[in-house]
Amino acid sequence: MEFDRQRLLVVGGSRGVGRAIALAGAERGADVAILYRSRSEEAEAVLQAIRAKGRRAVAVQADLAAAEATSAAINAAAEALGGLSLMAHAAGAMGQWASVAEMSPLDWGRYIAVDLNGCFHALHAAIPHLRQAKGGAILAISSIAAQMCQARNAQGAAAKAGVEALIRVTAKEEARHGIRANALAIGLTQTDMAQTAFDAWGPETSARIIKGIPLQRIATAEEVAGVACFMMGPACSYLTGKVLQLDGGQIIAG
């Protein structure tokens, strides 16, 4: 129970990797708050699953692109749990698979507003609560897209590279407050976003990409959650300012 007496905020906790982190955190002893944008039924299902593990759970709703709404939601979550000591940022936008020349500026701006600006808004609101807890840990879910820079994925590459830089700066700034900050850059994982990519690539290309991964499969959300909790946990108490790649070897395969 390495998260005993910890209060975990999962941004984007109603589905996918965020949901898996919320449940894994509860299994490790944390009380959990999830922030979600629109999927209230899925959020309620996550709350019920957390409470079934004997932990307190609360859900708050906000659009990460809106700074004031995000701040109000995170403040409400902290009040409900009696503070925050851990934060996992697992939210992201559904991108438009298009070249830079073909992508609409409107879609570019919408994606950056949620994926990069939204991460800043969440950090800005959560850090004061972690300071009040006299330390804690932040973990942002990034993507190997930031290193791979695939064609037709300028949004993902740029946004996640920004998130990783933001995390490194946060680690440097908040270390004196006892707060660690790291990022987990994941490869293809069994989520709605991965399915969107597969739909854009088509079955033949998708199969070829998966076959090219050294482990020849994609990750499960639970595998990602396990590593995320490890990075936030006491075993990694000297780890900060780092980006760990969890991709089944996809990057080294070229």
Automatic annotation (TrEMBL):
Q: InterPro entries given for it? A: NAD(P)-bd_dom_sf, SDR, SDR_fam
List the SUPFAM superfamilies hit by this protein, alphabetically. NAD(P)-binding Rossmann-fold domains (SSF51735)
Q: Name the protein family.
A: Belongs to the short-chain dehydrogenases/reductases (SDR) family.
Matching entries from PANTHER family are given as: 3-OXOACYL-(ACYL-CARRIER-PROTEIN) REDUCTASE, 3-OXOACYL-[ACYL-CARRIER-PROTEIN] REDUCTASE FABG
Q: What is this protein called?
A: SDR family oxidoreductase
- In which organism is this protein found? Sediminicoccus rosea
